[in-house]
Write a structure and sequence with these properties.
This protein is 0% helix and 57% strand. With 116 residues, it is an all-beta fold. The protein starts with a strand and ends with a strand.
Length: 116
């Protein structure tokens, strides 16, 4: 089992920045990839960014050039640096982790609101 706790959400003006953090605990040696998803009101949850244990990253087209995903393997943390935020980035952001048995774990989510 893996437990995930997100932090760093909040209210920010358009054009501003936020950094989300996700701390993993439990059977962390089994984690092969971590990432971030988001879900806006009335919409389905969508992939934002992923990063593998070896550091390979993948970002949704809508956030390329604005968001960066990184991880600290020693601390089992994953980060999402969000710059040039837009109103359409408003959503609940969820951290996820996948293990070597292909099980997927979720954090509780953190609200990001981009508004003036």
């Amino acid at each position: 089992q893996v437990q995930l706790v997100e932090s760093g959400g909040g209210l920010v003006q358009p054009g501003g920045s936020l950094r989300l953090s996700c701390a993993a605990s439990g059977f962390i040696s089994s984690i092969v990839a971590m990432g971030w998803y988001r879900q806006a009101p009335g919409k389905e949850r969508e992939l934002v960014a992923t990063i593998t244990r070896t550091g390979s990253t993948n970002l949704a087209d809508s956030v390329k050039g604005r968001f960066t995903i990184s991880r600290d393997n020693a601390k089992s943390w994953v980060y999402l640096q969000m710059n040039s935020l837009k109103s359409e980035d408003t959503a609940v952001y969820y951290c996820d982790a996948k293990d070597s048995w292909n099980a997927q774990y979720w954090g509780q989510g953190t609200q990001v609101t981009v508004s003036s």
